[in-house]
Design a protein that fits this description.
The chain is mostly helical and 88 residues long. Helices cover 52% and strands 0% of the residues.
């Protein structure tokens, strides 16, 4: 289809098909849609969660586990070295 050229040298059937694909697919896979979806599904909820967590000045809810074994138990599903306790 791409190699079938008209008298003007252009692949008319290919161009027709690509224009149709752009009309039907581009609205679904546009950068605008992606940014809107990221904003609605990720950034706004993350901002709301930050506001909830920060409402009390980011107070620590539970004491941090002491020692490597406490961190290893708390972070058992994390691969790699155990995380360090936060500095205050």
């Amino acid at each position: 289809m791409f190699y079938a050229r008209g008298r003007d040298g252009l692949p008319r059937e290919w161009i027709r098909r690509m224009k149709h694909a752009m009309r039907t697919i581009c609205p679904v896979f546009s950068a605008y849609r992606m940014v809107r979806e990221y904003t609605e599904r990720l950034y706004i909820p993350a901002g709301q969660q930050w506001e909830r967590l920060g409402a009390d000045g980011l107070a620590v809810r539970e004491p941090w586990p002491s020692g490597r074994s406490g961190c290893a138990l708390t972070w058992k599903d994390v691969r790699g070295p155990a995380p360090c306790a936060p500095t205050r």
